[in-house]
């Protein structure tokens, strides 16, 4: 009973090594293992079986499709129907018997990789594709104008030119007299405007202002400055 405390009072059982409730840890040491047959190769739970083809092989290795060598070509219905029509077989029963006796398959062939066409640079090393930047033809210059300067592009000079041009345009617009466009009024709008003007803005002075009967004999204490 090695591993148990000595001396011990009571019954000594062999299950004390495997029962987790009875196993006691020694001073300064971790609790002893309670497995009956500890083995380094033993796996507890589901074993982690690795796939021989991992994520790296799936994502980094490209595999082309390999056709099945035992795969047979499908039936050529167009060819069989053409032969049946030539022989005068038009019913479904005649077609079935004709296809069983004269079975045709689709012709298959091997893919042939064509050679790449030759380009002028294959024979002439100094051949240039497109228009060289050192020489601009007159026809192109008439359309595009002067070529852009790389230094001006990097220093953002064209943006500054655009800002200055817009500032000059705005200053010229401020200096010119502004003309207000009149609003075209309809006859109905003119009538409403005239009525509002005569009623509220320039009231008529004809007649005495309205005053209640009981206040007509009372002198006013506040001057309204009306004539």
TrEMBL record:
Highest taxon, organism lineage: Eukaryota
One Pfam family of this chain: CFAP77
Protein name (record): Uncharacterized protein
Species of provenance: Tetraselmis chuii
Region annotation Disordered: where it falls in the sequence: 25-54
């Amino acid at each position: 009973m090695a591993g148990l405390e000595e001396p011990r009072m009571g019954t000594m059982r062999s299950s004390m090594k495997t029962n987790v409730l009875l196993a006691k840890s020694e001073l300064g040491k971790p609790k002893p293992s309670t497995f009956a047959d500890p083995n380094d190769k033993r796996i507890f739970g589901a074993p982690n079986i690795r796939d021989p083809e991992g994520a790296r092989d799936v994502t980094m290795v490209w595999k082309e499709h390999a056709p099945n060598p035992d795969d047979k070509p499908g039936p050529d219905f167009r060819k069989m129907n053409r032969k049946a029509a030539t022989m005068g077989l038009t019913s479904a029963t005649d077609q079935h018997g004709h296809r069983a006796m004269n079975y045709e398959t689709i012709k298959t062939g091997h893919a042939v990789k064509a050679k790449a066409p030759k380009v002028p640079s294959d024979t002439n090393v100094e051949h240039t594709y497109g228009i060289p930047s050192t020489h601009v033809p007159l026809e192109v210059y008439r359309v595009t104008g002067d070529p852009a300067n790389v230094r001006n592009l990097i220093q953002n000079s064209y943006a500054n030119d655009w800002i200055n041009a817009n500032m000059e345009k705005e200053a010229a617009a401020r200096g010119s007299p502004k003309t207000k466009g009149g609003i075209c009024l309809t006859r109905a709008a003119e009538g409403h405007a005239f009525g509002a003007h005569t009623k509220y803005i320039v009231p008529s002075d004809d007649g005495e202002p309205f005053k209640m009967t009981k206040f007509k004999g009372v002198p006013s204490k506040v001057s309204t400055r009306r004539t």
